[in-house]
Amino acid sequence: MRPPAFSPLLTVLSKLPPLFLLRWLVSLSLFLSVGTPALAQYSDTVGLAPGAMIAQASEVPPAEPAPPALAVVAEKVPLPAHADGANTAWMLTSSTLVLLMTLPGVALFYAGMVRKKNVLSTMTQVFAVAAVVTLTWMALGYTLALRPGSAFVGGMDRLLLHGLSLDGLAGVSEAPIPETVYFMFQLTFAIITTALVVGAFAERMRFSALLLFAALWSLAVYAPVAHWVWEPDGWLARMGVLDYAGGTVVHVNAGVAGLVAAILIGKRLGYGSEPMMPHSLAFSVVGAALLWVGWFGFNAGSALAADSRAGMAMLVTQVASAAAAMSWMVVEWVVRGRPSALGIISGAVGGLVAVTPASGFVEPSGAFFIGIAGGLTCYVGATALKRVFGYDDSLDVFGIHAVGGIVGALMTGVFASPAIGGAHGSVLKQLLGVSATALFSAVATAAVLVVVSLLVGLRVEEDEERDGLDISQHGEHLE
């Protein structure tokens, strides 16, 4: 018999009405988002976080008064009346590249590593996440995450995208892009972050549970963390925590959420006693290649401009990924006697993860060392760490994304160069940013999973799991 997931807690919570639990979830999320205002006074800012470059430009001609949130910017720099063509073209391209990372990048990367009976269901889950998060981001996520508000959560002026006009501008103040393009770029980040979590509980979650989890998690967990780091008034941004493209917001957040989900849902049937061979590593190699290419939009696109900083971000992304792929391959060659395809692609992804927070702040030499460290630590996270603690993180979401994100965030504090990003690094501040993100993600993710479990149930039945989710959840299978 499969041990029930967190059954003592559910015994109590199952007696409570669903409406009460939903209110409790919202209250918990708001408390965790706003309950520690004293921390915002920890330090003076040392420069803008990547999202802090997003001082949104005026939505009206410069001759008219600027909106209150932009008054300070308007006093210092006259804001353009029209979008910058070059920046807009680059950001349209970057948005497409980041969406490519999920569809089909993550879908193929994950599908190749599961068993044949779960290939279609895994790809369908990733595809469905893209649709669900698009709607939650439009309805509420964008305004909570990236609009001016408090230090912990955004305002409601873009609820259901109210006020998003054809001529509205965002981005760097001197050469802005349309806010519609900025919305799309940030949407692709919300999509891939939620999709990454899927790999931790692959082959055992109900499809209905996945849909509800994606909707709630993107709002209650991803949006607040994005606001903390990438909105200029966010408390981590004001402290000077550096996260250029998502080391904490995306990778630590998704990795910790994946670990919590893997533990609470429980291990796959037969885990540790039956072989669980990947269906097609060729799928995974193609998926990893799409991730590598798409990551240029992820990191270089975070400049929000077609400029020299975007060029440096692209260069250091390539260097770090190559260094990590080689470091994983070498250590695997030494430990196991031969390099593997799964190893080299996992190393490359680990390097991409590790350099993400640093990509707009470091020189190529710093990226090289971050890549080496990312490859080595992600190897340990995906092998030894999982064996020691015994959790079933199916596709190593924690071992690669959380471990790589933590290493990259801390090393950003070591290698950040003011000549590149205009900010000095601080390992202590980076550690605080990582710790706050990990703690919030763990607690809020657990709360989301409890609500989902009580409303629709988390896990498929044992016979459905044995038959495979392709058949049991979708009535389809591969020949």
Explain what the structure shows:
The chain is mostly helical and 479 residues long. Helices cover 64% and strands 1% of the residues. The chain is built from 19 helices and two strands. It has helices spanning 7-13, 18-34, 71-76, 85-111, 119-146, 179-197, 207-230, 235-239, 247-265, 281-300, 308-336, 341-355, 364-382, 384-389, 397-415, 418-421, 427-456, 462-467, 469-474; strands spanning 169-170, 177-178. Strands 1-2 form a two-stranded antiparallel ribbon. Helix 6 (179-197) runs parallel beside helix 9, helix 9 (247-265) packs across helix 17 (427-456) and helix 10 runs parallel beside helix 12. The chain is globular. Mean pLDDT is 88; it is low at 1-5, 7-14 and 16-77.
Write a brief structural summary.
The chain has 479 residues and is an all-alpha fold. It has helices spanning 7-13, 18-34, 71-76, 85-111, 119-146, 179-197, 207-230, 235-239, 247-265, 281-300, 308-336, 341-355, 364-382, 384-389, 397-415, 418-421, 427-456, 462-467, 469-474; strands at 169-170, 177-178.
Structural class: mainly alpha
- Total strands: the figure is 2
Rounded to the nearest angstrom, the radius of gyration is 21 Å
Strand content: under 5%
Strand order of the largest sheet: 1-2
Uncertain stretches = 1-5, 7-14, 16-77
Mean pLDDT: 88
What global shape is seen? globular
Q: Into which percent range does the helicity of residues fall?
A: 55-70%
- H/E topology pattern: HHHHHEEHHHHHHHHHHHHHH
Query: Biggest sheet: strands, sense, closure?
Result: 2 strands, antiparallel
- Count of discrete alpha- or pi-helical segments spanning 4 or more residues: 19
- Termini separation (Å)? 30 Å
